[in-house]
Design goal:
Layout: H1 11-14, H2 16-20, H3 43-54, H4 59-72, H5 77-87, H6 108-124, H7 156-164, H8 167-170, H9 179-204, H10 209-215, H11 217-223, H12 227-253, H13 261-269, H14 281-289, H15 295-307, H16 313-326, H17 330-342, H18 350-361, H19 368-379
Helix pairs in contact: 4-5, 4-6, 6-17, 6-19, 7-9, 7-16, 9-11, 9-12, 9-15, 12-13, 12-14, 13-14, 17-18, 18-19
Length: about 375
């Protein structure tokens, strides 16, 4: 298994659109009702997911289940899980409250699965015992959600980078994804960032959308987005200015926006429906509260741009991303990071490894690694 894992030091850099929305941590959840958990398949698949997360403390089980899923698919995995349950031996008991040491450190496969589970819980189902893979909840001006229904809420740039780095992920697509296709998808994501900046600069100069479109045909074509999408981007620039102004006004009275719920609610209500560019009130409140959350919109445009590619490239990327109950991308990416930690001399403790690996998943959110470690301690005392 380890021979298929490569370094992913560039993943956080490519994944900036996703990470921007997490800079404020829990604040992005504050204005949104709990999202409905997306269905991941038939009842048998739901059962598989529950069984898988419940028994991830067995390294033999983790290796066997993941390998079996890759070879045979989820539908035939139930029998494999039951067989492994009969074969596995109980893990050595540890004194209650004792901090894990290197003597009790799980092997790389099991540690990877545990960390993936805890990251998934923090990202999608906080305070619970298992992840609930789902797309990000915020509305975006692009009309699609920023992330896919994975345990780490993967954005398109993140998914592309992960799939490029692992042939077994490319081969999961039907037909298999090629490096050429993934490079083209990555180029679209980059082109979206360039176009968004150009629109913002043009809007600040008073350029009209129609004039911009006529003068920037090549830049628009590079993204695969439509002229109507570009006009929406112009509307979004105006909306963002309104949101930023509302936030600044509230900060004059309340320096701690966590305690400014009435003011934020009123500011969202004050934005006319016609000027909201499709955003619901709950999402408007989240954008007003946390400036970094606006990064959701960039990630959403990137997702939409790749979805418009020929040969169903976007759909094939998404199919791979959400496969294996939303764990397909996380397992190889996290495993490569676990391997890097285990190779250090002297070897870090379990706490140091979990926090370091988790923080790499979201480098811009302060305390992210600690939150994941707290979940880890609760599930694996």
């Amino acid at each position: 298994m380890s021979q298929t894992h490569t370094s992913h030091d560039r993943l956080p850099e490519l994944d900036n659109p996703k990470r921007a929305r997490h800079q404020a941590g829990e604040e992005r959840h504050q204005d949104l009702l709990p999202a409905t958990v997306e269905a991941t398949g038939a009842a048998a698949q739901a059962s598989i997911a529950q069984r898988t997360w419940t028994h991830l403390d067995s390294s033999a089980r983790a290796r066997g289940v993941l390998a079996h899923q890759q070879m045979h698919g989820n539908a035939s995995t139930t029998q494999q899980i039951q067989t492994l349950d009969l074969q596995r031996q109980a893990a050595p008991a540890q004194a209650p409250g004792a901090a894990p040491t290197n003597d009790t450190l799980p092997d790389a496969d099991d540690l990877t699965a545990r960390i993936a589970r805890c990251i998934g819980i923090w990202e999608t189902n906080r305070g619970k015992d298992n992840p609930a893979p789902k797309e990000s909840a915020l509305d975006t001006v692009a009309g699609v959600h920023a992330s896919m229904a994975t345990i780490e809420q993967a954005t398109m740039p993140y998914a592309i980078a992960a799939i490029k780095g692992h042939k077994e992920l490319r081969d999961k697509a039907d037909p298999p994804l090629t490096i050429k296709e993934l490079n083209a998808a990555e180029a679209r994501c980059t082109a979206v960032v360039t176009l968004l900046k150009a629109v913002s600069d043009a809007s600040a100069k008073g350029t009209q959308p129609d004039d911009f479109i006529q003068q920037n045909t090549a830049a628009i074509t590079a993204t695969g987005l439509s002229n109507d999408d570009v006009k929406t981007m112009f509307e979004a620039v105006t909306l963002k200015a309104t949101i930023d102004a509302a936030r600044a006004e509230i900060k004059k009275k309340k320096t701690d926006l966590k305690k400014a719920n009435p003011e934020i609610t009123q500011a969202a209500k004050d934005i006319p429906e016609a000027d909201r560019v499709g955003l619901g009130e709950a999402s408007l409140k989240s954008y007003i509260r946390t400036a970094a959350n606006w990064g959701e919109n960039r990630a959403a445009w990137q997702r939409k741009a790749v979805a418009a590619m020929p040969d169903n490239v976007g759909a094939r990327i998404e199919a791979v991303s959400v496969s294996d109950n939303g764990t397909a991308l996380a397992i190889p990416v996290i495993r490569s990071r676990v391997d890097a930690q285990l190779a250090k001399k002297p070897q870090p403790t379990a706490q140091e490894i979990v926090k370091a690996v988790a923080q790499q998943n979201n480098p811009n959110e302060q305390g992210y690694g600690q939150h994941v470690w707290e979940t880890y301690q609760r599930l694996y005392p």
